[in-house]
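User: Structure with adenosine-5'-diphosphate, tokens only please.
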Amino acid sequence: MAELQFFTGTMDSGKSTLALQTNHNHAARGRSGRIFTSHDRAGAATLSSRLGLQHEAIEVPEDFDFWKYVVGALTRGGRVDYLICDEAQFYTPAQIEQLARIVDELQIDVFAFGILTDFRSLMFPGSARLVELADRMNVLQVEALCWCGKRATHNARTVNGVMVTEGEVIVVGDVEQQGEEPPDVGYEVLCRQHHRRGLTAGRARAVSMIGEPLPFGDSRL
Ligand SMILES: Nc1ncnc2c1ncn2[C@@H]1O[C@H](COP(=O)(O)OP(=O)(O)O)[C@@H](O)[C@H]1O
Ligand SMILES: Cc1cn([C@H]2C[C@H](O)[C@@H](COP(=O)(O)O)O2)c(=O)[nH]c1=O
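Assistant:
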């Protein structure tokens, strides 16, 4: 039986790497797949992983119709065994419904990868529909970590190094690496407590460097 599977985790938890590995393993067994993505950091029509791998992909704009695309490919005599769908948080709920229909009516496996919540910790509409419709939901095993060492569960956005909670939902960007200058718009993965309190690594560092003795010790961070 074909399945709609949703692989989710914070930014930088290995989703795109897993998407490329999944494609590799299925293709190595002679299965024929199609790779889709939307707004990848590496540019349009590319699925890229921070481990350095990348693959050509089909870009998914808002008006793209998965059902029409797959039925068209099959009608022209093509073979489609599975779909890899990266950055699925950016797909519309209607597109997620098309993916579920492809699984049910065409018996084609769909592997979708994406983050669950945006920088405000609200679900992306596409991810919410995936949670509602997926046969199986898998949380990535490699834990991305908050600066405090706890498992990171939330994606924070920073503008000039300061965490923000207002702005456009879609802004392509990357997590900052240690020691790097903060970019104009960047992201940082945090535990819930530090996301809720707006306490990024940079702010925690600044607070702990204030000369005055802290009334409650470091525990207030
Ligand atoms: N230099 C590195 N050495 C080993 N692992 C790395 C390195 N750089 C990134 N990674 C791994 O790659 C993961 C990010 O992979 P990626 O597929 O781009 O994530 P996602 O698609 O979830 O944002 C990191 O969590 C880390 O485990
Ligand atoms: C939280 C959040 C993220 N984005 C963007 C930033 C990146 O370009 C992608 C996530 O990619 P990754 O492979 O999972 O690292 O999403 C956004 O547009 N809006 C947000 O709120």
